[in-house]
Amino acid sequence: MTATVPNDVRPNRTDPHNTASNGPAVLDENSAPDFHGEENLERARSQAPEDYDLVILSSFGGPEGQDDVIPFLRNVTAGRGIPDERLEEVATHYRANGGVSPINEQNRALLEALREALETRGPNVPITWANRNWEPYVNDVVQKAYDDGARKILVLATSAYPGYSSCRQYREDYGMALEKLGLEGKLQIDKVRQFWDAPGFIKSFVDGLVDGLTEVRSGIASAEKTAAGNGRVRIMFCTHSVPTSAANEAGPRGVDYEGGSAYVEKHLQAARAVLAGVEAVDPALLDNVDWELVYQSRSGPPSMPWLEPDVNDALEKLEGEVDGIVLVPLGFVSDHMEVKWDLDTEALDTCKNLGFIATRTPTPGVHPEYIESLRQLIAERVSSTASSQDPAELEQNRDSVCGSRGWFDACNPDCCKSARAKVDRPVIANYQGDDAQAGARS
């Protein structure tokens, strides 16, 4: 059920310098066949399904009013010693929107869509919601679940890609909750695998890109004057930047990733799958089009290397070279603040200043096929709805549109682990097999 995605769907203009620091010197469609990612790890990826009592939709969280903004940002930056004066610089993004992050309302909509999907199509497991940095907090939700009788919980994080912030930190959230609440050995908490390759996740971006390309081409055709006069369109697949050190640590150790990182590689795989989907709808939409992977929302001191290029820097380099831009928020599952500010405000303003006809396509949100893919990811972990009770058969039955075997139900102990961590934090979904690194290339 794994689709084969060509590596040369359309020219990839990705800047070779946007790789992790241990990546290849050149990053393009011709380099992809030389990399196998963690596909060369032979160990099992699927775990046997179980009877779960509860699913927790787990997210980042966000403020819900002006008085919440600084306390929320203190939670996000806890332990870094950042003064409130500096936090106020970031707070302006929230304050411009009434102090409210859209992420909470979007998670409520996602929660309701998933609840309806589970009730109508199964599995018949209740679902609730928890946040890392704002109410409802993980610890509170876990304690209530235990008090209500839950003994096996499955966590679905609102993040599609492997990486510390997008995967391991969620595993730590729940590992630390079990430790703090004294529930180790009393409550089992597992996770749903990362889902960058899920058909519905990709399909939501295909639909948005089809509409976005149509809109930009129409705008170019009707414009009295265009930026370059050549009708060219650049697709920019946008995701959150991370420090190159964190990118290097994404994924299990000893693996040869395209771009030097599971984080970079999976975004490239997803981008190619989206392009293949558009090509299947209407190949003409991709005529005179090329694409690249760009980054946004970096923070931290300028001296710390982060994945590049920044979306605005990449746009400025295109001055006079293209007429149209389609921004695809490939690294995000909903239109939260970093999408609304960094893309809808800053990046589209840059496009306007440069004379580009531009649009930003939607995030998955509650796209019906995205919801169905999430439901299926839950269903494959639950005994009553899994396609098999045998982990090997479950893995064979996985549905991927990125040419992969999918991510791990339980991650290697060193997966996405930060070398800067002073102490090992407890985690959930930790793979205990002796074959964790079997087949990996150093």
Automatic annotation (TrEMBL):
Binding-site positions, Fe(2+): 240, 338
Sequence positions that bind Fe-coproporphyrin III: 101, 170
Chain positions covered by the region annotation Disordered: 1-38
Record pathway: Porphyrin-containing compound metabolism; protoheme biosynthesis
Entry similarity comment: Belongs to the ferrochelatase family.
PANTHER family assigned: FERROCHELATASE (PTHR11108), FERROCHELATASE, MITOCHONDRIAL (PTHR11108:SF1)
GO biological process terms held by the UniProt record: heme biosynthetic process
Keywords associated with the record: Cytoplasm, Heme biosynthesis, Iron, Lyase, Metal-binding, Porphyrin biosynthesis
EC number(s) on file: 4.99.1.9
Keyword Transmembrane found: no
Subcellular location: Cytoplasm
Enzyme class: lyase
Catalytic activity, reaction form: Fe-coproporphyrin III + 2 H(+) = coproporphyrin III + Fe(2+)
One GO MF term attached to the UniProt entry: metal ion binding
InterPro entries per the UniProt record, alphabetical: Ferrochelatase, Ferrochelatase_C, Ferrochelatase_N
Primary localization class, coarse: cytoplasm
Protein's name according to its UniProt entry: Coproporphyrin III ferrochelatase
GN (gene name): cpfC
Keyword Iron among UniProt keywords: yes
GO CC entries: cytoplasm
